[in-house]
Amino acid sequence: MESISGENMRFGLMVIGDEILNGSHTDAHFGAVREMLEARGLRLAWVEYVADVPSEIIARLKRSFAESTPVFVTGGIGATPDDHTRQAAADALEVPLALHPEAAQFIIELSEKRGDDLNSAIHLQRLNMANFPAGAGIIPNPFNTVAGFHVQHHYFVPGFPVMAHPMLEWVLDTLYADEFFKERHAHLSAHVYGLQESQIAPLMIATEHDFKGVNTYSLPKIAQDATDSTEAKRYHIELGVKANGEACALLDAAWDRLKSEVRDLGGEVV
Fold this sequence. Notes:
Blueprint: E1 2-6, E2 10-16, H1 18-21, H2 29-38, E3 43-50, H3 54-65, E4 71-74, H4 85-93, E5 97-99, H5 101-113, H6 121-127, E6 131-133, E7 137-139, E8 148-151, E9 154-157, H7 161-175, E10 184-193, H8 197-210, E11 214-221, H9 231-234, E12 236-244, H10 251-264, E13 268-269
Parallel strand pairs: 2-3, 2-4, 4-9
Antiparallel strand pairs: 1-10, 5-6, 7-8, 8-9, 10-12, 10-13, 11-12
Helix pairs in contact: 2-7, 3-4, 8-10
């Protein structure tokens, strides 16, 4: 199996919401974000799940604001009491929340479209969603025009996938298009039967030593219904090599030698 893509900028993903941590909802962001990044030659650096607890959100945002990695943040930017992300972002940056004029206009137009009086409690509550950390820019929301925001290489969008994913794609295509497919990335992998990881490890070490820039990896797999008596037949290892940039030119030779050495030890490479 082979995959070739670009690798350059890496992004973090912070998913905020008790509903993910307590299991009432399944996270729909990790897989979608990984795919949209890989489709543009970008990579996912890390994923973090955070509860709807202001102090925890603030602490994690302070840490990520201090780093250079761009971060997507989903959830908690609505207008209900459990939506803490906007205030937490402001607190982490030690700036006030401020009404963003363009975001506010989007909400005014939405309220007018729905027939809500602009002095009504429902509109004024909705208008809170235009309060962003001072200095933030907006992220357009094609679903209902209630904008997200970005500040200091962090991009805040709703937790709803139908809104969040097009908004994050807008961020990538508008703000990071120059970073797409800057460097080649490639990997080759196969399944190995009949050997243990400890037998393959010395071959992996030698491969990385002899082919500079090539990295190896292994992932042991056991069938869910395996027992001790059948483990030898069901156990196998996903073994692979990967490289970036100029080292990709060494990948085929490294892989051919590694597979040959595995077979010499009695392993079956599929």
